[in-house]
Design brief:
Distance between the termini: 40 Å
Shape: globular
Strand content: 25-35%
Radius of gyration: 25 Å
Largest sheet: 13 strands, mixed
Structural class: mainly beta
Helix content: under 10%
Length: 555
């Protein structure tokens, strides 16, 4: 069965003594913290969904070779999660695949027991994807909860995607996504900030389509800037801030239209009604809510960068550093050899603000290809402004980090003499902006906002952890420093490596004839394990089905 996809610097020469990654345990943060992938135009990423990335995972499990193993029986697969734009992990997925006949739906479940966060995915594929219908007919659910005390079972991520063919042969794609703020900034306490997205797309077969994305950001610890701006009509006395029925910190609606080449979109901010705004450097003025303020990007080709707050900075013990400041004058510094005339990086030093934030200066860059404009920040912006779009001669620009600090860089800190190891934990992909007047973009018309699904759309499927044995699929290199647990090993399904009479796919210890069962997947044989309790997420207190999501805003 075919599964298609939807949409698809310099090191210094100093001598460092930082320990080799292979010397750290699998549980150390320097190896445990995984890389995540983002899209710069994130409203469109949410709109089209991450389904393509998740389908990539399913496809790479080699499920065709291991379907229908039996009730409650699955198999283990170590996947190259990065290749599917998913976060790094050093653990096997537990996979169950069922499809009795080729005319039946393909039903797959994936889970990954561990002591940090518990992910579970379920796919029901009724109709495979095609050029005419790149969404297929499917239901896909992906969620995970915290496994750490005292936040055990607290939701971190939840997504439901459904596609269907309507009576008029249009394809309808609907989705809801719940993201805890800790995913975007690990310094935010779990549960303090919640991002909710609802999406609806109508796709015309063999053509393009239109869609709407609704974004509501809830923050229990911050006052909305829109209240501070005097929009008190949205914030009555006694207003609450909690998801899903409290007042969001921010609301926006993104309407878009697309064809095979481009996506054209317009953002409306819910409390003010203001639409896309940008600074026109040609007229030295801000423009918004008028013809020509729509944004448009290519669907193919992209360039990448690392946002300044998406690094991991570690000490020689493999732990995230605890130093933290927001004041550039108080930031720790380290020499870094990068030749530039940029005025925001005049002293040749990177700045360490905390265990996630590495400052490398700001540079005005063209959104189409990342090329530099001048040697400073964009006209009409301030230092630290990474949001404002600036239009110069019909092309769009924005401030980005001047350069990325490469994965594996070791920095010698001026103030303390300590060595810090830097990892890139968040890579952001930028889809190229098309210039004003582009013919493909002008051929599209953005439609009025459509109603998008609310929080009651989530399915919350029960994905049960299966019994598994040896690793049957392994997509990782045995020599990879970060992924050393599996050592690149995998086993034949029906073989019996330790000759104990139990086939590899049922033997959790394929090299030990005296062991074979591990129902809770903690790497301890059940006869030696004092606790074989299998964790099962409980969403009862987090569904909020009795509440109506906040709806008093402009679209």
């Amino acid at each position: 069965m075919r599964i298609c996809l939807f949409i698809s610097l310099l090191f210094t020469n100093y001598l460092f003594l930082f320990p080799a990654l292979s010397s750290f345990s699998e549980a150390s943060p320097i190896k445990r913290n995984g890389k995540l992938f983002y899209i710069h135009q994130y409203q469109l990423d949410v709109g089209f969904g991450r389904v393509n990335d998740y389908l990539c995972l399913f496809k790479n499990t080699e499920y065709k070779n291991f379907s229908n193993l039996g009730d409650g029986i699955g198999y283990e697969a170590i996947l190259d999660n990065n290749a599917c734009q998913n976060g790094e992990v050093n653990l096997p997925w537990l996979v169950v695949s069922k499809q009795p006949t080729s005319s039946d739906n393909l039903v797959m479940e994936m889970s990954m027991p561990n002591n940090i966060a518990d992910p579970r995915i379920k796919l029901i594929l009724e109709e495979e994807t095609s050029a005419a219908n790149p969404y297929g007919v499917l239901t896909l659910d992906y969620n995970y909860v915290s496994m750490l005390a005292p936040t055990l079972n607290t939701p971190i991520y939840n997504a439901t995607y459904e596609s269907s063919v309507l009576d008029n042969n249009q394809v309808q794609f609907k989705a809801t996504v719940y993201i805890d703020g800790i995913i975007l900034d690990n310094l935010i306490p779990l549960g303090q900030q919640v991002y909710f997205y609802g999406t609806k797309i109508l796709h015309n077969e063999n053509s393009g389509g239109t869609g709407t994305v609704t974004e509501l950001i809830f923050n229990t610890n911050e006052i909305s800037p829109f209240l501070a701006a005097g929009l008190v009509q949205y914030f009555p006395n006694g207003y609450t801030k909690n998801y899903p029925d409290g007042n969001p910190y921010s609301i926006s609606t993104t309407n878009f239209a697309y064809n095979e080449n481009v996506v054209k979109y317009e953002i409306t901010y819910g409390y003010t009604g203001q639409k896309n705004s940008f600074y026109n450097a040609d007229t030295s003025s801000f423009e918004s809510s008028s013809s020509g303020t729509e944004l448009c990007v290519s669907r193919t080709g992209s360039w990448e960068y690392v946002p300044s707050k998406k690094y991991g900075v570690y000490d020689t013990n493999g732990n995230r550093i605890t130093f933290s400041t927001t004041d550039p004058a108080q930031a720790q510094t380290a020499d870094y050899d990068f030749t530039t005339s940029n005025v925001t990086y005049s002293d040749g030093k990177v700045r360490i603000f905390n265990g996630s934030w590495v400052g490398t200066g700001l540079q005005c860059k063209k959104l189409s290809d990342g090329s530099f404009y001048g040697d400073n920040i964009c006209p009409g912006t301030n230092l630290g402004d990474v949001f404002t779009i600036v239009r110069i001669n019909g092309h769009n620009y924005q401030n980005f980090p001047l350069f990325d600090v490469p994965e594996g860089t070791v920095l010698n800190i001026d103030q303390t003499g300590q060595e810090y190891y830097v990892r890139q934990l968040g890579v952001s992909k930028v889809y190229p902006a098309r210039p004003q007047g582009d013919a493909d973009c002008n051929s599209l018309t953005i439609q009025a906002s459509m109603d998008t699904p609310d929080h009651t759309f989530f399915n919350y499927p029960v994905v049960v952890t299966p019994r598994t044995g040896a690793i049957l699929v392994n997509k990782l290199n045995a020599t990879t420093d970060l992924f050393s647990q599996s050592r690149g090993a995998y086993y034949s399904k029906d073989g019996d490596e330790d000759r104990d009479g139990i086939p590899n796919y049922l033997d959790a210890f394929p090299l030990d004839p005296l062991k074979n069962l591990d129902v809770d997947h903690d790497l301890i044989e059940d006869t030696e394990d004092n606790d074989t309790t299998v964790f099962q997420p409980d969403w009862t207190n987090y569904k909020h089905l009795e509440k109506a999501i906040y709806s008093n805003y402009l679209k």
